[in-house]
Amino acid sequence: MSRALALASCAIATLLPFAAACGDGAGDTPAAPGGSTATVAGEALHERRPVGDGAGDTPAAPGGSTATVEVTNPGVSPDLSPPASKYVIRVEDLGTNWITDIPATVVVDAAGYAQTKVFPSQAEGEKLLAQWGYQGGYQTGYSPEGRDTAVLNGAYYIRTECHLFADERGAKQAYDYFNRFAAAQPGMAPVTMTRVGNQSAAYVMTLGTIGKSSVSAIYHQVLFQRGNLVCVVLTKGAEPFMKVDAARDLALISDKKALGQLDAPEPTPTRNYTPAAGN
Length: 279
Known about the structure:
By secondary structure, the protein is α+β, with helices and mostly antiparallel strands. The chain is built from six helices and eight strands. It has helices at 3-8, 110-113, 122-132, 147-151, 168-183, 244-258, and strands at residues 98-100, 106-108, 134-144, 156-165, 189-190, 199-209, 216-226, 229-238. Strands 1, 2, 3, 4, 5, 6, 7 and 8 form an eight-stranded antiparallel beta sheet that branches. Strand 7 (216-226) and strand 8 (229-238) form a beta hairpin. Helix 3 (122-132) packs antiparallel against helix 5 (168-183).
């Protein structure tokens, strides 16, 4: 099985892979539609937690705002140009004490994306993606310095993806499909959240523990559509610390890039990955 497909088979609910890099229990992560076998995912939490010198210290939340109910122009629907990577959260957007997950950073194409479990078959995936005018996507992830030790003190892991379509109509169709898929996943529960983009949805799942501890791991996922763009943000953290606000605030970063409110440079390539035939 290819690395990317393996990631996709152990992720949460829409497009995002969450693998063993998110902790010690690789089998503890819920399943997600998305990830790819092709070539190589607001401003802050409720509070900005202090950063110290120890490995267990919690990284500062991205940005410094406490405005977790911010709504950014819900009626604006831009026609965004490729590549989708321009709209994904970059490590530079997060501040200090975050590490890019290189193996989870991939360029997504239609051929690889159609093979993932979000679709009932590769043929059906290819058909739907063609109908939606799929132009490509990009996924990446970030870990806090200190990994699980930091997570047990309030930090969290991040996975994020953005996908572009030929027009808003195709993006809306894809969003609806992904949202239905997410809502149907066992153990997934919807969460009330102030809208991001033109439309959005949020989900939560508690599954497994953080590393070898007895502290429950909780996953929050935000999916949104803005113009011809669909993005997903997934956070994994310790249940006592986490709310949907963290994932929503991160999603706002991508939304603001789509609106031209934040710089949206194309990320520097990390590496290329091409799956072996049959994987």
